[in-house]
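Lab notebook, design round three. We kept the backbone fixed and only want residue identities now. Task for the bench partner: fill in a sequence for the structure below.
Input structure tokens:
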């Protein structure tokens, strides 16, 4: 897997902070200085975690089973 850069992590944080309070994404988390995955959290009836990863052409987000549910060339487009 490819690692997220500090500027990409800052972009994720800025995108998350710009969301309205009622948006389904409730937060995100990353582990380590150069994470290979970032977890996006959602809550509706219960908490769910979606791993975000980098691809050769952009970004992909998967469900709890690891099945890719969305791909995009930019983080903003993925949102």
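Proposed sequence:
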């Amino acid at each position: 897997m490819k690692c997220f850069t500090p500027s990409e992590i800052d972009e994720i944080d800025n995108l998350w902070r710009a969301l309205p309070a009622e948006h389904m994404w409730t937060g995100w988390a990353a582990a380590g200085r150069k994470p290979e995955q970032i977890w996006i959290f959602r809550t509706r009836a219960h908490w769910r975690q979606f791993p975000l990863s980098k691809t050769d052409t952009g970004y992909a987000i998967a469900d709890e089973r690891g099945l890719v549910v969305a791909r995009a060339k930019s983080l903003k487009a993925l949102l």
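Keep this in mind before ordering anything: Helices lie at 6-17, 75-78.
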